[in-house]
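Appendix B. Raw example, untouched.
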Amino acid sequence: MPKNIIQDIVKTKKTKDIEENSKRIFYSNTKNEIPPSSNSINSEQKRGTSHNVLWFVALISIVFLFFAISFLFSNATITISTKTKDFTLDKTFTAVPKISTTDSLTYDLVVLSGEESRVVTGGEEKDWEVPATGSVLIYNAFSSSSQPLAINTRLEGSNGKIYKTKSKITVPGISKNGIPGKVGVDIYGEKVGSEFNSAPLDFKILGFKGTPKYSKIYARSVGEITGGLLGKSSQLSDSEKEKTIKELSDSLSTKLLQKVKNQIPTDFVLLSNATFLNIDESNVAPTDVPGNFKVSIKGTFYGIIFNKEKLTKEIINTSLEKTDDQNVLVSNLESLSISSFDKNLITLPESEMKDITFNLSGTVKIVWKVDGEKLVSDLLGKNKKDFNQVLSQYPNIDSAQLTIKPVWENSFPSKSKDIKIVINYPQ
């Protein structure tokens, strides 16, 4: 059968129209999306590129700001260990009182007084016949001539009791400035028993009664008169008393030493063994509790102090050759030991202080000083690589450690306040 060409053309056209309609329906039913055009794709790419450029510019700005702030706060720290030398010292020195106007080595004193006490229990009960004892100062306001007094000189106390001196003494006469002479002596009760125990008393010398000396040569107690006993009682043995007084002395000495150290000026030094404690008074008295006794002491603490700079100069001049003492110091002055000095000279009134000779011994650590301010000045603005060259101009430096911040900085700050020098002087 012959083909109908016209019908085939119509069918083909219809078929194409159906396919086109099917495509439209498909795109319409798939999320109602329309296929992107080439113009919209180009627009999106341009917007993405613009955002990337902005982020890149922001990142560069932040990095630049970080570096700018880092350079603004740049600093350097130099930790230095100085040159040192140890040697053994064992030499004799002489020091003059601080009141002297000489440039020689001078010494000064720090003096403190204090008290310490403790309650202890006595031993077993025994029969006792003990006289009361104490100490007195006897004054001579009669004449400039000294007055000898024999052992067992009788003193009449203001309580009406008679006491006797334990030793022979000589009372100095009146001084040129009118001050009565005086001397100390121990006394004891004429009879045994507690009735001779007493608070401090005034005394007259019975042997001078009826003479002008009776009112001009007199005595006064130094503390209480104690220990008189007759009958059964617990009492401290001599060994227990000595032990307790020793412990009290050590305790008082430690306390006063700490107070002295707190009072010493920073440019002075208190040498080891340059202190001692004088026990001015010790006393044992019964308490309200039977068998218990209060042991007490009063003491005066003396400490010899020296000017650090002058003492260092003396040590250097006698121990090292060709050394500029202005550039060195002794870092361990406090550990040096002083000995062989006359303690009696130390206890004199300030107006009567004498020159003292003493031995100084120990291991001395000489430390060379470093001029930190000059070193900072020499480093300002210098390149980091020039550090060792600058240090070579400082022979007193043994070693140095450099830290520069930020770590990428290659030069020292240009302002001195940004360079910190830490000098580790040995102790």
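End of appendix B.
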